[in-house]
Amino acid sequence: MTRERPDTVARWQELGVLLLPALLFAGLATRRSSPDALAQTTGQSEATALRVCSDPNNLPFSNRAGAGFENKIAELIGHELGLPVTYDWWAQRRGFARNTLNAGDCDLVVGTVAGMEMLATTRPYYRSTYVFVTRRDRHLDIRSLNDPRLRTLQVGVQLIGDDFSNTPPAHALANRGMSRNIVGYPVYGDYRQPNPPARIVDAVAKGSVDVAIVWGPLAGYFAKRSSVPLTVTPVSPQVDLPYLPFVFDIAMGVRRGDSTFKARIESVIASRQPAIDSILDAYGVPRLPLAHRASP
Amino acid sequence: MPRPALRHRFARRLPWRAATLAAVLVAACHPERSRSTGSIDVQTGGAANPNAANLPSDDGQWVRPAKDFASTRFSSLTEINTQTVRNLHPIATFSTGVLRGHEAAPIVANNTMYIITPYPNIVYALDLTKPGLPVKWKYNPKPELSSQGVACCDVVNRGVVFDAGKIFFNTLDGHTIALDAATGKPVWNTKVAEINLGETVTMAPLVVKGRVLVGDSGGEMGVRGWVKGLDENTGSVVWTAYHTGPDQDVLIGANFKAYYAKDQGKDLGVSSWPPGMWKIGGGTMWGWISYDPVLDLIYYGSANPGPWNPDVRPGDNKWTATLFARHPEDGQAVWAYQITPHDLHDYDGVNEQILVDLPIGGATRKVLIRPDRNGYVYVIDRQTGQVLAANPYGFINSTTGVDLKTGALQYNPAKQPQVEKVVRDICPAAPGAKDWQPTAFSPVTGLLYIPHQNLCMDEEGLSANYIAGTPYVGMNVKMYPGPGGNRGEFEAFNPVTGKQAWAIKEDLPVWSGTVVTAGNVAFYGTMDGWFKAVDARTGQLLWQFKTGSGIIGQPVTYRGPDGHQYVAVLSGVGGWSGAIVAGALDPRDSSAALGFVNAMRDLPDKSSLGGMLYVFGLGPAT
User: Of A242, B245, B317, B619, which cross-links B249 as Cys (Cβ 3.0–4.6 Å)?
Assistant: First the structure.
């Protein structure tokens, strides 16, 4: 067995000094992908339904009642394709793609990070950012990871337990030697409760933490519905140098190799982007402009 | 049999040549004696004896995965020996009907064999008294479908245990179940873990003194690890010992006395973390428990801390990656030794501990031998927790050794992972020099038989991932073969000298368990499906058989109803190392299965899925 020296790192290092926020990350995250090597397995031409892989308990993204923005976008796509929407429900945890999309039980993941390796992702349809969430009555106005008050306030952070992985704010605060005043909220949460990742926003409203650093769509939606007025402010910088992104492009995902189906989905995204934007607006999803990239 | 020259060379390496040969002669010249008494005299020679109290006379059964409480995985049977093993052949096979990784040991009690599959954790009882080993009963616990999504590294189960007419086992969705061993009817069923919090259970329970001991998996999910003691008769949870948090939760009380200063103090499970972080600190327990009935202590280790990255949790992160000695009835800790403080590399501390008495420094010491994931074989005084020796059995550069005065593991700062920094050639890789796959010990040779891997890893660059609607970033971890180019090794290791006796290089990681016998045969399996018998003294390959799938199960040996010796193993590739096949992962996704896929890209060409029991014997098919 030979050692493989992946080209990813070299590319990163070359690009490091030129790093531009956001624009880069989707590209960086796209490591080798050559879906054309896989057999074309779509069979979509005979499809009788738009089969969506979805989490039944994770607003604002999706739930079994169809109340999430990904449900609404799925309906929009189904309408465009002339197909009814059906769901394969599965908690979006480790193994989600394996047990749903890649098991052949459904064909479309409405939200995933652009360039995610275990599936083929479409052109992104929105870009969001991690945000600071505070109570409005505290007037904290925290905008930057370098705000010295983050060293003394109680800071809520979304955490991932996976080995060698975590959310950008967890890494960024760790890099600054800040850990004594972090309160961790596992993204997985307790799945018996509704919308388990949302507890971190509740914690700000209740005053259990002074500030939380939260992924934008989750924060935007629950801040909008909070009985205590909350302030949502995008994290600055967008890329914590040298490489740590706080801004991500979100795309749809299909099975690797389903290139015909992927092209159809992309054409719907292209033609119905304004309608998608309206849905995202209605759910309070904080967004940044997508980079204008040459269409692949 | 070894040729004289070979024997001479081998003998030179061992301090107890005479003792070894004496024991071999006992075994070779009096096979009938072993058969009739059920045990050879393990005191012969006196050089390296398992604690006699821990090794009751061998009844030819195999009632728990580790064989005995001392976890020797040693059988005193001798009918299958270095001379007869070449005649071994399959006498029966049985398809489990399940495709994922089969890590369990077949269990033999009262002329019945009990096997458990990976999820959905079906238990079969096979009748050993009838030709073809027909099914006596089958029990399907129907675990929750969603538990498959929660389990980190394939949906494995490490075995059932037999005690007092019952079969005890755990399900992936967190139930401990007792069945009537004769009928397969459930006696009790206790939910011990909460999959909605990310807890699953994959370990084989241990039953001692009326307690069924169970621990959780799910360190990747931000859970807080524990071991529970259940009442053997009712299934009610008698005690729960957490591995993080205040002493009261860890069951550290007045009788607790850690040997090293670093492990002494009040509520270290709180103070060795940033405030509150212990609540999601990991430290699960999905490995092995041993028991010393004389000292009345159970021994086990806890898994790695969470979350990653380590800079989020400055401090020792107690009591993760820690060895505990506890009383089984109430769970109270007697001592603890944190093997890997502030783990950086995913070196869970859940490996097996073998309880033997060894001659060390001129005295016979009651020790616990622990081939740890971090690459060292620890020899520890099991009465006090003092580390007597810690010698490498695999290639290590992530640490430089263990300070026996302070008990401290010496980290190599150059191999410390850091986000946004490229760190290459970290050895051992995250699965360690050895993962869950258990070691055997032969009192005849005085050697440990360690099935293990030889992998290093790079951590370089970041890539984006996405869970529950939330993007996050992780290091790209890539594993690859360590020095020598072989990914696995079956190694005989002398725990007294701290040196390797011999080793067989295997191309693939050796992810199976092992068994060693008084017939001086050691068995193990390879991930491409070879089931092998080697001479326990020399490592010489004596026999091999190609099974239908890769072997990651635990072989056992037993005396059948006809008085003859048999060997059994489950074939069925999977587990973390085999996730590329079991989970049908894309070989181009080098960071899949936490980077293990990079090292296993060729496995799909060498093994395919399928759980199958193989039973081998010397006589005609039953």
Answer: B245
